[in-house]
Design goal:
mainly alpha; Four Helix Bundle (Hemerythrin (Met), subunit A); 3% strand
């Protein structure tokens, strides 16, 4: 026998993701991509059933997301997705314009052909969804499209800040997306983003991203005003 160390067999690396991390990411991405709606009430058991998980990792994931202000607590101590207000919308809109415009400009500098091909393909899929008014698919590809662009920018802290704003805005996208005219206007901005990236034009990329954000914010602002008027009208009828 020899004292020489025996080499280990080839082993597959173990995933570092815990079940809690996976649950957290799934719920977080569902919020950012518009799969929940503002004011929607959530239960640990309901989410656990949907995810095929036990309640514990869901509870921990909701704890983390609550710390990120993704949820608010109702009078009955239940969690619900935050409701947007005009004031919060303006604050988020202005921050997104500044940060996402910066990421788009940075992406232009670092973009390679493989990145552009991926982004263009996501834009094509988004156009198909918009043409069919397939809201669920549109919202997911819209999320993936912007995330793919900003990943190119290699600005981890800025992307993290942007995603925090998406936690608040994502659920609201489901309210305006069913409008076919809004989807087509949004696609015009998305196509301009791709054109600017292909031309390596940072200023044009920033302008197109800004236009996309402003259009969505304007549509949502009108919706919030109409909802507020409807509630006021209903309250007036009850008082009469």
């Amino acid at each position: 026998m020899t004292d020489r160390p025996i080499p280990l067999p080839t082993l597959r690396p173990v995933s570092r993701d815990t079940l809690q991390d996976q649950v957290y990411r799934q719920i977080r991405e569902a919020l950012m991509s518009g799969r929940f709606q503002p004011g929607q009430k959530l239960t640990i058991r309901g989410l656990a059933d949907a995810l095929g998980s036990s309640p514990m990792p869901v509870r921990e994931a909701l704890h983390r997301l609550s710390a990120e202000n993704a949820f608010e607590v109702t009078e009955t101590a239940r969690l619900r997705v935050r409701v947007m207000t005009p004031e919060r919308l303006r604050e988020i809109r202005d921050a997104r314009v500044a940060l996402e415009g910066l990421l788009a400009e940075r992406a232009v500098v670092l973009l390679n052909d493989a990145d552009l091909a991926d982004i263009s393909e996501l834009c094509r899929q988004m156009q198909q969804a918009a043409d069919k008014v397939d809201v669920s698919r549109y919202l997911w590809t819209n999320f993936a499209f912007h995330r793919r662009i900003y990943a190119v920018a290699q600005a981890e802290l800025t992307v993290a800040a942007v995603e925090n704003f998406w936690l608040h805005m994502g659920p609201c996208f489901a309210l305006v997306a069913p409008d076919k005219a809004h989807l087509q206007r949004s696609m015009e901005a998305h196509n301009r983003i791709v054109e600017a990236l292909a031309a390596r034009d940072g200023s044009a990329a920033r302008a197109a991203v800004t236009d996309d954000i402003m259009q969505a914010a304007d549509s949502l602002a009108r919706l919030l005003v109409n909802d507020d008027r409807a509630r006021s009208s209903a309250s007036g009828v009850k008082k009469a």
